[in-house]
Amino acid sequence: xxxxxxxxxxxxxxxxxxxxxxxxxxxxxxxxxxxxxxxxxxxxxxxxxxxxxxxxxxxxxxxxxxxxxxxxxxxxxxxxxxxxxxxxxxxxxxxxxxxxxxxxxxxxxxxxxxxxxxxxxxxxxxxxxxxxxxxxxxxxxxxxxxxxxxxxxxxxxxxxxxxxxxxxxxxxxxxxxxxxxxxxxxxxxxxxxxxxxxxxxxxxxxxxxxxxxxxxxx
Length: 218
Known about the structure:
Blueprint: H1 10-25, E1 31-33, H2 42-45, H3 52-76, E2 81-85, E3 94-95, H4 98-106, E4 110-114, H5 124-134, E5 140-144, E6 149-150, E7 162-163, E8 165-167, H6 168-173, H7 181-189, E9 194-198, H8 203-207, E10 214-217
Parallel strand pairs: 1-4, 2-3, 2-4, 5-9, 8-10
Antiparallel strand pairs: 6-7, 9-10
Helix pairs in contact: 1-3, 5-7
């Protein structure tokens, strides 16, 4: 949403597409899991009486909207993409099928996974760890608003320091809020490292071991 209060900012989407283009052109196979918090946060609205499952399904639909926006931005600059949704919405995107998704990636397409896991009570972090496991990914890139994992919120605590390397157990035991516990546990079980970096930085540079980031692994 960029500097907007909510919604989809076209400049941000275009910038993200350009970053992805650099990665794809370097020969890296890429698949993406998209969140929906810029449009709707299901868990936040449960405090006002919204049923949790209903709120989560609404959040999943928000991720579909974001996925279509990203697909459009990518295709405008020549990147072949496919959106696969965990919820069947055949009029606008494919239903998630693991073997089909892997085939798309083998053909050089960027696969965008929408609607999380398709189940309430699970975050898109968990969906990212799940899809990374299913796609046999080498690494999970957690692109966020900060350049790594900090001991506390660096915007609120001036004494907060950044970790360069963490183990999965460190994240869980220190209760670091980089991803939810189920996502960390799933990545740990399947031995997939998690690279936490800023979405505003050069993604291709980070993947080449340069710049600022945090690696979570064994």
